[in-house]
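Hi team,

As requested, here is the filled-out complex form for the magnesium ion run. I kept the field names the same as last time so the parser does not choke. Let me know if anything looks off before we queue the next batch.

— J.
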Amino acid sequence: MSRAATVAEAVATLNRGELVIVPTETVYGLAADARDPAAVARIFEAKGRPRFNPLIAHVADLVAAEAVATFDPLSLNLAEAFWPGPLTLVVPARTGGVCDLARAGLETVAVRVPGHPLLLELLQRFGGPVAAPSANRSGRPSPTTYADAVDETGAHAAIALDGGPCAVGVESTVVAVIDGRARLLRPGGLARAEIERVAGPLLTTNEDAHRSPGRLALHYAPAAPVRLNAEAPQAGEAFLAFGPCAWHGEGVWNLSARGDLREAATNLFAYLRAADRTAPAAIAVAPIPEHDLGEAINDRLHRAAGYIG
Ligand code: TXA
Ligand code: MG
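And here is what came back:
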């Protein structure tokens, strides 16, 4: 892939049933026409992704969302409050909206209006839903820069759009709204507290029945082992610090020297990748507070470390 594509080229590529790497405000995605099962099948092949794991349909606005899904008053409130933005809503699917393969055969569909101007322009001009998982190979950290995205899945995409580094840096928060009740399926770039201001307390559960099918144990994982809640690096370890600390220099990346969780989320995957490229004995990570975007950061770190089943 020698150069970044234009939006017009991206529209033509999606119309041909081929794959396009797209920027979002959260992480880069690997995109296809969500109505076209052959195109969607290419995504599963490119990522080595199990077919029981459904994809998110990205749409330009609420009107386009209503063409693929049905909204009740609660999901409508959430959409109006947070779109465009890092919130994915799992809601009942409309027949004929998104193909069965993209939904992994479920009667629900995950939908979001992304907050990235280049992708919004593409979605408006394309005029249909675009299925896009994160543009990493399955089980690897999500790419948050154009270069990392092309490195991960560029060989499978016809072209790539360069939207610069992702502002949020972790994937969208996934909330299911079924039968008038909102349930957190995946913490992400929109903090739980913000959603609860609109939806009231979110249901959460570890029961398999309510799990997001994609929440596999070892996910977002670098090649090196990951050691969490480390106060200091040991010999041979890379170190991801957080907040003011005594550790600096080679082999140390500070997710946010001023202790800002938004900044830490933005840097998380890029620093995991940078640390991993030095082939350390392990990647030690400082404790991260659990509030605000810390919930999503700790979720991804626990998966990278293989702690969550
Ligand atoms: O920020 C993001 O969400 C990025 C960008 C590219 O938009 N996308 C992303 O997609 O993270 P992916 O495929 O890596 O994660 C989608 C998550 C998976 O955990 C999947 O299982 C869940 O959403 N999901 C999709 N459809 C679902 C459904 N109908 N019911 C429950 N979970 C669903
Ligand atoms: Mg992913």
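Two things worth flagging: The CA atoms of residues 175 and 184 lie 5 Å apart. The chain has nine helices and 13 strands.

Thanks,
J.
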